[in-house]
Design a protein that fits this description.
By secondary structure, this protein is α+β, with helices and mostly antiparallel strands. The protein is 22% helix and 30% strand. The strands form five sheets. It has a four-stranded antiparallel beta sheet, with no helix packed on it. Strands 9-12-13 form a three-stranded antiparallel beta sheet, with no helix packed on it. The protein has a two-stranded antiparallel ribbon with strand order 1-2. Strand 10 and strand 11 form a beta hairpin. It is elongated. The termini are far apart.
Length: 243
């Protein structure tokens, strides 16, 4: 603000703005902005008032656009790079005025791709790769450009065979299930033999009238022949049939 021979600056602008004519006594109120920043863009108003007539004023308007070269973009991949899948490569610059235009390219010695297998959007920076095959593997470079310059980023694409992973997973699962089946069969046979032996022992005990406590002390079971004195812990009683 210039008034009555004095110049008044807003603190945030002091040192960054200079009058083309200082003081502007001849009516030239042009200003020069030093070291322009993107935040300086916007609408500027020049307000001129005649001190003898405070009821009216004249205004001049100007819209300032600050041109900014593209910042270094960020390249990313979305999707699973298995054979037959579709994936999308994205490329975005956080800064750039005018809005950057994006273009994708591959290394010069890359294998040729089928027609229409790459769908590029220069406005959003996306690149869709359809029906992946081994030929898609390689490095992809994205360039963001406008009137002030360009910047680039690269991303590597590796194509894997999804069928291999599925086969390996199936083999491992089959092996695990087979091991569980074998363990179940062994456990069943063990329990079956144990129950069968217990039933046999109980039948022998009932038939020979042997004390169960004495029976458990013997690890060989009752003697069906020979001298019972060899196993004094067993007492066998003989009953005469009832008439």
């Amino acid at each position: 603000m210039y008034y009555n021979g004095h110049l008044y600056w807003v603190n945030s602008w002091e040192g960054r703005v200079a009058l083309v004519q200082n003081p502007p006594v001849s009516g030239v109120a042009s200003v020069k902005i030093l070291s322009v920043q993107p935040s300086d863009a916007g609408l500027y108003i020049c307000d001129v008032t005649n001190p003898n007539d405070w009821s009216g004023s004249g205004q001049g308007l100007i819209n300032l656009t600050v041109l900014v070269p593209p910042s270094v973009p960020v390249c990313q991949l979305s999707g699973s790079t298995y054979v037959g899948n579709d994936v999308t490569l994205t490329c975005v610059s956080s800064q750039g005025v005018p809005t950057p235009i994006y273009s994708w390219s591959r290394e010069k010695d890359a294998a040729p791709l089928p027609p229409h297998s790459m769908v590029e959007d220069q406005r959003t920076g996306s690149l869709m790769l359809t029906n992946l095959s081994a030929a898609f593997a390689g490095t992809y470079t994205c360039r963001a450009s406008n009137d002030l310059g360009e910047a680039a980023c690269s991303i590597s694409v590796k194509v894997a065979h999804g069928g291999t992973a599925a086969v390996v997973g199936g083999v491992l699962m089959g092996t695990f299930l087979f091991a569980l089946l074998i363990a179940a069969v062994v456990a069943y046979l063990f329990c079956y033999r144990k129950r069968a032996r217990q039933r046999t022992d109980k039948n022998e005990m009932r038939r020979m009238n042997v004390d169960p406590a004495e029976w458990r002390k013997s690890s060989k079971g009752p003697l069906l022949s020979g001298d019972s004195n060899e196993h004094p812990s067993l007492r066998v009683s003989h009953f005469s049939p009832l008439v």
